[in-house]
Records
---
Amino acid sequence: MSVAKTIGMIGHRSINAVWRIGTATRFFFYIMLYSASSFRRFHLIIKELFSTGVMSLIIIIVAGLFVGMVLGLQGYETLKRYGSESALGVMVALGLVRELGPVIAALLFASRAGSAMTAEIGLMKATEQISAMEMMAVNPIARIVAPRFWAGVISMPLLAALFSAVGIFGGYFVGVVQIGVDEGSFWSQMQSAVDFREDIMNGVIKSFVFGTAVTVIALYEGYDAPPTAEGVSGATTRTVVTSSLVILMLDFVLTAMMFGGT
Amino acid sequence: MERATIDLWVGMFVVAGIAALVMLAMKVGNLGTYNVSESYQVHAYFTNIGGLKPKASIKSAGVLVGRVTDISLDTERYQAKVVMSLDKRYQFPKDTFANILTSGLLGEQYIGLMPGGDDQMLKNGEQLKKTQSAIVLEDMIGKFIYNKAEEPAK
């Protein structure tokens, strides 16, 4: 391939990416614009809360339990060397509440609920259900997209909180029940080290931001997918890849803003 | 409005999520144990605060009585000014002694309050006059070497 062609391809890709970001932003503003009408029909949001939130519960709880157990085990092995096993609770709680809870819950959410959203909307588009709605003067963004968006935004912080809570119990189970770290110091050191506003609220804010990002990406990819079987499958893959990367990048930015530089 | 099973599931999900948040706040965080609203502020000057950080705990007889809220350098006397917020429930005499102590050998630093015998109690905005700085390891080693050098050779 000639050099000019390569440069041209890179340029084309970059312009295309910026273009897509622009359209996604416009899409996001449309969602905001039509949110009011979807809040008036709250049963639509309830239905989506069921399929995104409730159906993700099992994977979140099981994953949280195992992540907490691994943290308890690994943390104990490391802390034992310095004779500070009593700080196990602090390590497990801070790790989960600040980072792992929001991030892993968002990654699981992106692959569990985000991909489903993209596939669903992409298929609606491919089978011309969205065009049919427009024909009937029903706004597809208000009817289909906005309820899914709000369901994702509402359920993400709740799922992340559940993940952290279950994970702490997993760490408690391995650390205190199985290995035999002192129960009193496990909880009391955790309580004195974890700050409600600094740590827990920042975790909630993080998961809120991740929830917004994941659902916007998933919905946009679905809405923008080429109306073919191949197009829908490609859009679903892109949802998982893009939202995972965006979650990790946003996590760095938010962490630097919240905890960095003190 | 008709009720569907879906509503029950969503309700359970929301309740579980909020319960997890409350549990995090009360059992994991410090919201249940330490109340910031009922407090009064005092300050103290130290020649060296070592590794003391804002939010470090303030203990008296080992009991948590407050937190360090602000640390700054006073350029008039070139000493560190440490502002502390103490729990209203605990009143201390005016001649209370503030020490910077270390929990464990390498643990975090905190302020220990040793109550004096004054009849008057500390009020909001007042100063703790008697302080003792943090022990800096390098100073101690320096002193030790100096003392060794002073000893007559055998």
Note: Chain A has a mean pLDDT of 90.
---
Amino acid sequence: MSLARRIIPCLDTDGSRVVKGVQFIHLRDAGDPAELAARYNREGADELVVLDIAASRDHRPTFLETIRRVAAELAIPLSAGGGIGTLEEGQAILRAGADKVTVNTAAIRRPALLTELAAEFGAQAVVLAIDARRDGAGWRAYVRGGHEATDLDAVKWAQEGVERGAGEILLTSMDRDGTRKGFDCELTAAVSETVSVPVIASGGADTPQDFLDVFEKGKADAALAASIFHDNLQGFGALKRFLAERGVPMRVSA
Amino acid sequence: MKIALVEYGAGNLPSVERALARLGADTFRAPAPEALADADAIILPGVGHFGALMRQLGERGMIVPLRERISRRVPFLGICLGLQALFSASDEAPEDTGLGIFPGRVAALPPTAKLPHMGWNQLERREPARLLEGVPQDAYFYFAHSFAALQNSTGPGHAEAALCDHGGRFVAVVENGSICGVQFHPEKSGQAGARLLENFLRLAQSESQSNRAEGRAAQ
């Protein structure tokens, strides 16, 4: 009996449709969020993440409606976010049906946001998303969907984020995102061994071996991927059986 | 059978509502004590902070009515924080008192494992429980919490039907006649969670029938 590692599909949306891109650019349409959510829920995903990568205030009501439609299809947990800057915006995401709210840029600009969200909704509802890119011997945190470098070391920022109230880290390797070259196990292990909360590894997933590596070498608590699931290159059943056969604790039955 | 979902701002109320709707249950939201009068069964959903929950219930005048209904054997299910509320207190908010149905105290999970305990975990069955009927032994349920009632904290004579382990053993399922509680989120636990909720509906049906029969006999 032990806590299962999680396999988490991610829906990057423009607010209302799922979109795909390579290293945060070249977006194209990949389907209806509620339809994909229903499929992943049925096929054995452990959790779902839905992000508004456009995140402009004008279409926030559209994204909240998307969360409502997605939540209605799920009997598994849902994290949602994208451009969340205030307690009220976080609350709107949770009220729409998400179990956790993910924050990124705004938490770097104003780290107290993490504390405010955790005090109101509990740390288990607060996910700190970090976009990290290799920089010398370490990794640098980026904001605004990867467009802008900060002066923060990604591992140190993860640690500070947890101290301020984040209950989970969603860690994306910008170097690997969309490349299908495997997860950045070194980055993931560096963060996972530093923080006391679960770490979701993201960016670069392709083969079942990549998932095995990020759980074993990267010490990830969960692994997230988008396009390999959207394009049916990987099924949850087969992937989870592969991992379970190799000793990774997995929820294999739905 | 009408099931009251206690409404006090808990984030997971809509998902509990949806999960029960899928099972064809007749639910309504109970934001005030009066609403509990019509309830054949009561569910207290919960997520977040023990102190916030108890203060919210206090402000709504729900603490005494809830305690009274639970003692009168109106079938009750506490989910996550809703289970913790059944205890007398919690280390998460030492200044606030719980419903006190169980004498024990909710404590922080040991920090030897990653916290929050977040994700899917299995149960260690200790006592036969109607809530777990037909649920496979190896089924996984979704947990998201940092505090819990540690093993043997419900007090003598109370059935800790199943435990879970994360840095230490804690109560995952309580079933004490009509008083039920689960530390995980059945509404987020796929088919296993749906089965557990269905079992609660069946339990509630049979408990409220026998309550009514006893009521008639007493008259």
Note: Chain B has a mean pLDDT of 94.
